[in-house]
Each structure stands twice: as structure tokens, then as C-alpha cells.
Amino acid sequence: MLEVRNIRKAFGDLEVLKGVDLSVDTGEVVAILGPSGSGKTTLLRCINFLETADAGTMKFDEETFDLAHVSKRDAARLRKKTAFVFQNYNLFRNKTALQNVMEGLVIARGIPKAEAEQKAWAALEKVGLSDRADYYPSQLSGGQQQRVAIARAMATDPEIIYFDEPTSALDPELTGEVLSVMRQLAGEGMTMVVVTHEMGFARDVSNHVIFMEHGVVVEEGSSEEFFQHPKEERTRAFLRLFDEEE
Amino acid sequence: MDGELFELLVDSFGRILLPGLTVTIPLTVISFTFAMIIAVITAMIQFAHVRVLTQLARFYIWVVRGTPLLVQLFVVFYGLPNLGIVIDPFPAAIIVFSINEGAYCAEIMRAALESVPSGQMEAGYCVGMSYLQTMRRIILPQAMRTAFPSLSNSLIAMVKDTSLAANITVTEMFMATRQIVAWSYEPLALYIEVGLIYLMFCTVLTKLQSVGEKRLNVYESAGGK
Ligand SMILES: Nc1ncnc2c1ncn2[C@@H]1O[C@H](COP(=O)(O)OP(=O)(O)O)[C@@H](O)[C@H]1O
Ligand SMILES: [Mg+2]
Q: CB pairs under 8 A, 24+ apart, for B138-142?
């Protein structure tokens, strides 16, 4: 359903993406791994037009776009079919948890308030936070904020959700609650692209793994193949770092 | 204090307060409302880096902040008639105070808009909202919260600045006091009296400010509710 070809992006002299491909099938969970600074965040941001790529094409639902010249209208239209979960949550600080979830339904999609509220409650219920519906982000823990952010993402019934290191800003004891919500989503067949350092999650949940470094894809393959028989020496070295941790 | 002076002060209290309620406060409220409209628009233009308009906004702020309010009042009321533009004192005062205050509040609003983390706008885009929708629902309310104390200060300063309108024959509180002084020859007592009335107005505003801040604080206070 999503196919990105040869995406390039530089910030000044710094080439951050040097021709990256990414393809995602419906219902698939793709994990993107790689050391910090390898361009993972920039990749997701370019795909969702938060950053304008210098080159590259993107096929989404049979429509093809030139990533370097996407019109504002196309960008807005495509964003309504996708959702994004940020590393630092980015919940609307002036809205309660429930309002955070409703905003994209009522304001962006014009869904009647009563219906939107029902959907929002259901989404909060799913992430186990219906009892925090009236709390503002500042009154929630990091893990709870990220769960609200996931509720906000899934409430709009997106065709795909992009996750950018959703647990990296969390204390270790809070990552579990967020990961379990994500596992549940994956189990329900949600299409997801997940940038993560959680090797356990990538191994158990993802179907496909992409390993990036210095703006290029070093290795990719099915999750099983990638973790059982990594081909590249760089990949093996990267995976060893995590083996030592575990 | 002799009885005569006391009587004068009691008698003049109403005569000063009345133009306070009918002129000073409306002048302040109307001008500040217009000023806020100017400020929000000017700040948003700069925030979005709209070409040409941003330069115009900077020029406007530069001129207004670099010239005395009294000079601005004189230019509009005594100067514009040279071009055949004659404006009554009260509307002239409204125009000048709105434009003047608008420039100061625009700077406050611009700084407040810039203080909202960029992730808030990005989150708005990612849930499918447009720039203007996110601006109206997410960014502006947060900026307003940040700007509120400074805007309140500006409003309080403005109440006092309206006394300058006396110079273009607007019969506000200070003008009314001067008229009483002219026949009673009691400048000390009467000017202190009008000063106290200004103090009263500003005290009410300060109270309103802290009530407003408490209400706006809701989403910033960490911890349970
Ligand atoms: N807006 C930006 N301006 C300049 N450099 C940036 C910007 N965003 C990211 N970079 C640089 O691009 C590189 C890749 O960043 P990023 O995509 O965030 O990597 P990752 O998410 O894999 O850690 C880093 O060197 C980072 O400093
Ligand atoms: Mg990153």
C-alpha cells in the first residue's frame, strides 16, 4: 500500500537520506532500526511531509507522488489517511486527553461531535485510559501521554500509523505499557511503520525489518531472517550491542 | 481637613468618576479590543513569514514604538485636518490608542507564538488539521496563555495612558479633574483624588488578571486534579 523509492534529503551540506526505499503492505508491521543519527526520523518526517524531501517518489494507495513537489492539498489529503506517533508525544497541551483524541475527528474530518466523542472514548478505552479522559497532558505520566497519542492516532481509522521511537523518551518501567498497546494494534492488523530500539518488539511483532545507517539501508529482510541470519557485518555488530544488554 | 475641602472632594468624586465610567473605561476597552485584533493579525503574519506583509508589520511596529504616544495623538487630531481629515476627539483617541497598543501587543503575541513548541503544529498537521485550524485551536490558545500576564500589564498601563487623551480635548477623568481644579484652586487634593481613582481601576484589573491566570492555569498545573 505504501512504496517509497529513492528518497533523498540533505540539510545544507549534510546528506541525511541518500536514496532510501521502503515498501509496506497492508496489515504489515515494518520495523526500522539503526543507530541514532542514521536518518530514521527524517525518513518518517519526509513521508508525512513534515519535511520536504529533495527527491523521491511515493506510491500510496495506487496514487504516485513526487516527494520533492507535493502540493499542500495532496499533503493534507494524504495526512488524513495516516497517523503519526512522535517520540515526545506532542499531545495538544491545551486539550484534555479526550479532546486530544477528538480534535482530528471533529475539526479535521468534520465528524459530528457526539459520534466523535464515542469514537474517542472507545480509543481511550483501548489504551486503558478512559479514567484519564479529562486529564490534561501535564497531569499524565509519559507512558500515559504516549498511550493517549496512540489513541489519537488510531481514532481516525488511519490506513497506516508511523511511530518514531515511541518509547525512547520513557523511563524503562513505562515502556511496557506502550509496547503492549502497540502489540495489540499490530495483532488487530493495523499497518505500522515503527522506528524503534526495542529489539524484542521488532523481533516479535514486526514482519519486516529495515536496518539503516548513514542515510542508506544496510540490510533488510523478513524479521525472522534479519534476526536469525543477518548477512551484513554492520548488522551483526549492531545486533550484538543489544544482545549484550539483554 | 476643613469641611469645605472635604465637601469639594466628595462632590468632585462623582464628577470625576462619571467620565471615568463613560469615557476612560470605554476608551480603554474599545481601543484594547481593536489593539488585540491588530496584534493577533500582525503577529500571525510575522509568525508565518508572509512575504511583503511581514515587512509592513515590522515597519508599523518600528514607527509606532519609536514615536511618543502624545505625538501620535497630536498628528491624528491636530495634524490630519491639514489634509482635510477631521476626526472627533473620542474616535481620534480610539484610533491612536488602538494602533499604538496594537504594536506593543503584537510583539507580545509574536514572542508568545514563537514560544509554542513546533511539535504542536506538527501534531495538528498529523491529525489532519490545516495550518489555520491548528493555529486557531492549538497554537493561539497556548500563545494567549503565555501572553496573558504581559497583555494584562499592557492593559493596565493603557488605562493610565488614556489620560493623555485630555490633550486632544477628550473629557476623560483627568480632563474632568483639571476643569474642577480650574475653579476650585485645590490642585493637590484633586490630583491625588483622581490618582486614587486610577489606582482603584487598576486594582480591579489586577484582581481580574489573577482570576484569569488561575483559570488559564488549569492545563499547566502538573499533578492530580
Ligand atoms: N532540521 C534539521 N536540520 C539540520 N539537521 C538535521 C535536521 N533534522 C535532522 N538533522 C540531522 O540529520 C541527521 C539524521 O537525523 P535523524 O533523522 O533525526 O536521525 P535518527 O532519527 O536516525 O536518529 C542527524 O545528523 C541530525 O543532526
Ligand atoms: Mg530519531
A: B138/A92, B138/A94, B138/A95, B138/A103, B139/B113, B140/B40, B140/B113, B141/A94, B142/A93, B142/A94, B142/B116
Q: pLDDT tens-digit profile of A57-87?
A: 999 998 999 999 999 999 999 999 999 999 9
Measured by CA distance, the residue closest to atom 24 of ligand 1 is A37
Find out whether A135 and A114 touch, Cβ atoms under 8 Å.
Answer: no
Q: Among A70, A157, A62, which Cα is nearest to A108's?
A: A157
Top residue of A92, A119, A134, A154 to mutate, by most chain B CBs within 10 Å, is A92
Shortest Cα distance from A244 to chain B (angstroms)? 34
Cα→Cα distances B13→A206, B179, B181, B200, Å? 79, 13, 13, 12
ipTM score of the complex? 0.94
How far is the C-alpha of A104 from the C-alpha of B59, rounded, in Å?
38
Judge: B122–A86 Cβ closer than 8 Å, yes or no. Answer: yes
Q: What is the pTM of this model?
A: 0.91
